[in-house]
Design goal:
heterodimer; A: 429 residues; alpha/beta; Urease, subunit C, domain 1; TIM Barrel; 8-stranded mixed β-sheet; 5-stranded parallel β-sheet; 14 helices; 18 strands; B: 323 residues; Rossmann fold; 2 domains; 4-stranded parallel β-sheet; globular
């Protein structure tokens, strides 16, 4: 867009350039122009006074389910993109497990077009690995990338055939995109609906062992090693998985990996009482696993903080535990949860968190943005790390309200979300 | 949510969380109700004017009939709904089914459902009392109560006894309710079965784990032999029924090795020649039909207590006094 936006006097944290200082940020015609002290406002520039606030590259969430097409009662690309903006995100990567599955260039084009029409956070489509996510034949990977897909994944129905996964990781290299995997051996998961362990045993719920995730994490790392491809491991939840990724990274395997807010904060004890808002996949695990995920985020083994935003209509969650679908919404709580329970509890500093929410995800998926370097997209998030607020799912912009964090008191949230130099969301003063 | 005067609260969802006083209250209240079923006219006015819905989403003969006898012998008005031939097969959700029943002004729902937690789910959403008649692999509290009543009839106590549950613990709501209830009453509890059918972390509940039936028989005062669902072979839990019988089956030659006078329970329906041999099921150690008889009395006691009946007036109530 044309015009200029000057953000004055905030504490600018841009891990991509190792900046942590009070600076002004100037965006001109939708593009980052300058980060410096005492910038003179161009004529007609809009100005935002960011004194006392933190100014970062626009936050990126590489793992969201926007449900459109096919699940519009849960979320649409428009409501999801607005929820993202309200959570401080300037870009999201939409998973392809919709109905129909996004496994061809037309599907990719549809998601892109709906994202542009929403005019909120940018929406980057991720295509399927296999046709229909059925794990049998490769989807039209090259054509999808040509249409704008930034990666491929069969998230929601992981590829069981290791031979096909190998081919996907080989084939995708021509297009320099990551193959993202929801690592889960469905045979080991069986009919499990929560973490296998004492809580599941007491509640009479079938468990998924850590091994169902670990087996595929290790498989994927071996295939990345074999093929030289880029693997992106989604929502890592186990201690062994974190350790395996750490080892693979030290050996030069091209792997990036996610930590979700819920796996950083909750354990399977949250399922007590059969609360379907604590049902997700991978499930909430033990406290030892949670600690390992936290350490992984801190030391960079897990480079990306991502929500796995998974909206479901309340009727769908209003069922007996085993019958309810997996997943929770995350876009509007992630930043506050991270600031409160990750930074606030001293696990990592603010700059490291911003790294995991900007340059970390941008690098994993080769996205523009994630930086305030001149010439990059004019995507900026301004946050108030000190504002106290209480999660109220009744005011979510997402169509769905399935969160285990309702009522939780948090400290810190986004106050301006700026995409291409345009304010797409602003907190109530 | 406690109903005034109910020593159990509004619902009976499970035995986990109940105190030993509450469990003993049910067992003690069942005692005077046993006699009703021995009368020529098996009916007393204890629940006259109460409306009870038996809502069975899974097939059941014994439990459903037992509840129905208990309700009718206490003069309640009952309606039976099973999943086939009802609105459930038309896609109605559990919560909608329950709310529609509630709108007809009922007092109590007895529910069996295939999903763990379904009873609690329902109890949290309707004001009527809910009795769990089995939810998934979670709990089946009245079964465990009748098991305990049967054990107590024989041994005059529960505390200090050694009780081993044999078979498919992983999928068993009967096992979980027995474990929670028996441990609360101070019994020693063990489980025995192939490791494929023992849930992870079961020992952390405070139970001993035996992998061989011979060890369990050496240890136990009571064996509660669980039904082996015949479809378990398909999940890869077992190679064959024949092998299960050979390794874990409760046979006469095995129980003859018991150092103590062993009591044999089975919640039914039995697979003769699989988990239990006929000469054990029909032999002097088996309490299987006594369990069924006690089931009616225990369910009467639960119905009586949940509708606000006081434990110490059960005797008077069954003779016609208003409760």
């Amino acid at each position: 867009m044309s015009g200029a936006l000057l953000i004055r006097g905030g504490r600018v944290i841009d891990p991509s350039q190792s900046i942590d200082a009070v600076r002004d940020v100037l965006v001109v015609d939708g593009v980052l122009a300058e980060v410096a002290e005492g910038i003179d406002p161009p004529e007609g520039a809009r100005e935002i006074d960011a004194a006392g606030l933190v100014v970062t590259p626009g936050l990126i969430d590489v793992h969201v389910h926007l449900r459109e097409p096919g699940g519009e009662h849960k979320e649409t690309i428009a409501t999801g993109a607005r929820a993202a903006a309200a959570g401080g995100f300037t870009a999201v990567c939409a998973m392809p497990n919709t109905d129909p599955v996004v496994d061809d260039p037309a599907g990719v084009g549809f998601v892109l077009a709906q994202g542009v029409a929403a005019g909120a956070a940018r929406v980057y489509p991720v295509g399927a690995i296999s046709v229909g996510q059925e794990g049998k034949r490769l989807a039209a990977i090259g054509e999808m990338v040509g249409a704008g897909a930034v990666g491929i994944t069969d998230d929601g129905n992981p590829v069981m055939d290791s031979g096909l996964m190998r081919r996907a990781m080989e084939y995708a290299q021509a297009f320099d995109i990551p193959v993202a995997d929801h690592p889960e051996d469905l045979g080991l998961s069986g009919v499990g609906v929560m973490n296998e362990g004492l809580v599941a045993t007491r509640l009479g719920l079938h468990g998924k062992p850590n091994a169902s995730e670990d087996v595929h994490i290790v498989r994927d790392l071996m295939l990345a090693d074999l093929t030289g491809g880029r693997i992106h491991l989604q929502h890592v939840s186990t201690a062994y998985g974190v350790e395996a990724i750490r080892l693979a990274k030290s050996r030069g395997v091209r792997v990036t990996a996610e930590a979700t807010p819920h796996h950083l904060i909750l354990t399977d004890e949250r399922v007590e009482g059969f609360d379907t808002d604590a049902k997700m996949n991978p499930p909430l695990r033990s406290s030892a696993d949670r600690e390992a995920v936290r350490e992984g985020l801190a030391d960079g083994t897990l480079d990306v903080f991502a929500t796995d935003h998974a909206p479901h209509h309340y009727d769908e969650k209003e069922q007996a535990f085993a019958d309810a679908p997996n997943g929770i919404v995350g876009l509007e709580t992630a930043l506050g949860l991270a600031l409160t329970h990750v930074v606030g509890e001293g696990l990592i500093d603010l700059s490291t968190l911003i790294h995991r929410m900007t340059v970390g995800p941008a690098d994993a998926f080769g996205l523009p943005g994630g930086t305030l370097a001149p010439g990059s997209p004019g995507d900026v998030t301004i946050l108030d790390p000190n504002e106290a607020w209480t999660v109220d799912r009744g005011v979510f912009l997402s169509k769905s309200h399935n969160t285990p964090f309702h009522g939780r008191e948090l400290k810190g949230r986004a106050v301006f979300t700026i995409v291409g130099g345009r304010v797409v969301w602003q907190a109530d003063a | 949510m406690s109903e005034p005067g109910s020593s159990l609260g509004k619902d009976l969802v499970g035995l986990e969380g109940l105190t030993s006083d509450q469990i003993l209250t049910v067992l003690n209240t069942a005692e005077p109700f046993k006699e009703i079923s021995e009368r020529r006219i098996k009916k007393v006015p204890v629940l006259r004017g109460k409306t009870i819905v038996n809502l069975f989403f899974e097939a059941s003969t014994r439990t459903r009939v037992s509840f129905e006898f208990a309700e009718k012998r206490l003069s309640a008005d009952t309606v039976n709904i099973s999943s086939s031939g009802s609105s459930i097969v038309k896609g109605e959700t559990l919560v909608d089914t329950a709310r529609n029943l509630e709108a007809m002004r009922i007092d109590m729902v007895v529910m069996r459902h295939g999903s763990s937690g379904a009873a609690k789910f329902l109890a949290e959403r309707i004001p009527s009392s809910v009795i769990n008649a089995g939810d998934g692999s979670h709990e089946h509290p009245t079964q465990a109560l009748l098991d305990m009543l049967t054990i107590r009839d024989h041994h005059k106590k529960i505390e200090g006894l050694k009780i081993c549950l044999v078979g498919d613990i992983l999928h068993s709501r009967v096992a979980r309710s027995n474990i929670f209830g028996l441990l609360t009453l101070g019994a020693e509890v063990a489980v025995c079965g192939p490791k494929t059918l023992l849930p992870l972390g079961i020992a952390e509940l405070g139970v001993t784990v035996f992998s061989r039936i011979e060890e369990a028989i050496q240890w136990a005062d009571v064996l509660n032999v669980l039904r082996l669902q015949l479809e378990r072979m398909e999940g890869g839990f077992l190679p064959s029924l024949r092998e299960y019988n050979q390794v874990w089956g409760v046979s006469r030659t095995r129980i003859e090795q018991a150092p103590k006078d062993l009591l044999i329970l089975h919640p039914g329906p039995m697979n003769r020649g699989v988990e239990i041999d006929s000469d054990v099921a029909d032999g002097p150690h088996a309490m299987i039909l006594q369990q069924v008889t006690n089931g009616v009395a225990v369910r009467m006691a639960v119905l009586y207590l949940l509708t606000g009946g006081a434990p110490d007036t059960a005797e008077a109530a069954k003779e016609g006094a208003e409760v």
